[in-house]
Every structure is written in structure tokens, then in C-alpha cells.
Amino acid sequence: MLAGWLCAGAAARPNIVLILADDLGAHDLACYGADLHETPHLDRLAREGVRFTQAYAASTVCSPTRASLLTGKHPARLHITIWAEGSLAGPQNRALLQGASLHDLPHTETTIAKHLQSAGYLTALVGKWHLGGAGHFPEVHGFDVNIGGTHWGAPNTFFWPYRGGFGAGGEFRYVPHLEFGQPGEYLTDRLTDEALRVIDRAAADRKPFFLYLAHHAPHTPIEAKPADVAYFEKKLRPGLNHRNATYAAMVKSLDESVGRVLARLAERRLERDTLVVFASDNGGYLGTDRRQSVPVTTNAPLRSGKGSLYEGGLRVPLIVKWPGVTPAGQASAEPVVLTDLFRTFAGAAQLADLARAPGDGLDLAPALHDPAARLGRDTFFFHYPHYYHAPPSTPASAVREGDWKLVEYFEGGRLELFNLRDDPGEARDLARQEPAKAAHMRSKLAAWRESVGASLPTPNPNFRPAKK
Q1: How many domains does the chain have?
Q2: Quick one: 333 and 283 in the same domain?
Q3: What percent of the chain stands above pLDDT 90?
Q4: Looking at the predicted structure, is the pLDDT value of residue 1 above 50?
Q5: Which domain holds residue 278?
Q6: What CA–CA distance (Å, rounded) separates 124 from 281?
Q7: Is the pLDDT of residue 111 over 50?
Q8: Average pLDDT over residues 50-70
């Protein structure tokens, strides 16, 4: 089916570069309306490709989204619904015990990397993995190269040697395979160096490649190069939505990384043969970090952020440039989800059987070719049977059907209903005004959970409510 979307000059089996940011909010790029941040390279990518304005992560936190985009399956179907460390033990002092979630991406799952590897692609993961222990590292799941990928979700520091005590418990963490650096070296820059080496090697070998550059930025710890921080501190002024100069500096380094990757593709004359995708794994984090007094970021005008099933926790930037397929400078308002990348990459690589195999995503090729196209899907499901801290949220599921969205909380069975067309900020709960609509969507959500075998939270027998 893909051949119908290819234009003159498009590669039949393109290289695929997926650059995934960590905790980057839906409105953290200038081309998505950020007011403090400067992202000229990503803005240029958007001008040269298609920018999706209603893109969803598969989950409101990292590991589930990463597992979903690699396998083409919903996190609830995979039984990976919280970050890897969070799966080991949930809070024991709340009304519910969290739903069960796997720590490791099972060996029974076949990633898009494994399929591309079998099709002759060089496959490389550079950066964050966060999908299980050593027996489930990238090499086990189809990656020829693994630089930096471990079971941890965040580094102790963004500065070389990228090691030390992490968090209140002081767990010793490190980022492997980044030895022989020097003081002042910055993690985002070094991961980009390693990604460029992958491109160079693939070019020398004249081999198609899948590069998954999974940056840790701009996840906590919020650290950036001092000169960049000073630059954004001078830009701060009253009335800005974004107010964290260090975070802005992290986004600047992330943007520079994208620019360097694009430049190397052009230098190696691979630009026209390469499908480039930029996205984030969940919405922006709204808490504070270490000794900072201002929130890390804002997802305004969307409500809430990471850990929440409101739009601010789920919506992400998604930019795709595919020479010969995507028109330049177009925006698509079609709702999509990062789970769709599995089928999209399979279709791009001409893996026809895989593109038609059962799964939870769609091939985005029609919307990439014509950003005004509809994909024939109006329902999206989300499942997060866990607690989160900033801002506080309790276990919940959500469904979007057309312009309507329902959030169902497992504590007490509370329902919230929103019309996203009229109220994209989810400020007006219509559940009491539209009881039939709420009941219909709740029934649909319950049927979906049963169909995928979703793990549910259970009552905590040891919970004792605080006395009023």
C-alpha cells in the first residue's frame, strides 16, 4: 500500500531516525507556541515536514510509551503501565494497591528493531532504554548497537562522567559506554556524538539503518550548560508561560542535537533517503527539581502534566519529515498516537506482512502524504492504574471518542467528561450534564479494558483513612 504514497525521489526502503525526548511537553517547542524556549532546528524540521497538533503518547509516563512504540501494542495489552522501577513496588499507604506492571519487556514481544534487523537494517539504540534488566536490554530486542541503554530511567547527572548517587536513597547510577570524556562534557551532546558515529558507520557500510536516539533531556535532573542558563535567565520577564531558564537551556541543547543529526545526514548525502521522526514520551513534568523554586515546565493551555490522564500529561510534539512523502510546512490536526510509529516504520521499510499484522496502531502514511487526510479512527484509550505525585493523581483510565473524553478514577468510581473541541483545557466537567454520554463511554472503556486484559488496582486491606 505504501507505494501509492511515494513520490519521485523517495527511498523505497528509507533509513529511519527516531529522536525521542524525555518529558518534553506538548508546547515546549517554539513551533508549538513556547515563549521562552528557542528551537530553530526543530522549527526548521517542522517547516520541512509535517507537524501533528493532536499527537498522543501511549501513556502518561515513559516506559509504557517506549514499549508501545517499539511493539505496536497498547501498554495495557503489554502489561507495562508504569516506569520500570515503579513496577517493583507501589505505595502501601493509599486506598488502592496499584495495578500489576511488568518490569521487563518480555522476550515474547518482537520490536520494530528486531524486524528491521532481520530485514538487513543496522539497528542502534543511543541513550535511554528503561525497559528492563540486563537480560532484556536493547541487544536482546533487536539492536545491533546499544550505547547508554540500561534499566534506569534517568542519569544522576547530565555532566561527565555521568555517574554518582541518585535520589534520596543515593543509588549509584551511571550511563555506560560513554567513557573517555572530559570535565564539562554534556550528556545530550555526547549522545549526539555517538549517534553521528552510527550514521557514519552505516554510510560507510552502505547499509540502511534504524537509529533510535533516545535522549534523557529534558528529564530531571534539571541541569544545563552554564552559558546557556545565563542566556535564558536574561530573557526571563513577567508574563511568560515558561519560566525555568535551566529547562530552556536543556531544550536548547536538545534542539542543537537535532540540528547536528540533520546536518550529518545532509553531509553524508543521506537526507533524501531518511525518514526522520521527533517526538516525546509523555507530557511535561510540572514538579520542581532539587533546589529549584519554579516548576520545570508548563503544558498550558492544556491541563496538568506527566502522570495525569488530562491532555497535558498525554499530548506530545510529533514532527515527521520523509522526503518524497511529506509535504513541506504542513500541520495535521488528525489525532494520532505514538503506537502508530510501529506500523509506520514497518510500512516505510516495505515489511508488508508486518504492516498488516494485528496491533493497536495505524500506519500514518496517508496523513504524512496528505495532512488533511483522516485515518478512519475516532477512539483512543489510556490506562494508568497507578498513583503519581506532581501534580497528585490517582489510578485512572481514559477514553477519547471523537471530541469527547472521559476520565474514570478507580478511587470511588468518579467520572469526568469533557468536550475537547469546546474545552481543550478540560476546565468544564460535563459528566452530570451528559449522563447518557458518560455512561456510554464508561461502558466502552470497561469493555476495552477487558478485551486487552488490563491490570487493575485493588483495594488495600491495610488502608486506614485519616480521621477528620
Answers
A1: 2
A2: yes
A3: 93
A4: no
A5: 2-377
A6: 18
A7: yes
A8: 98
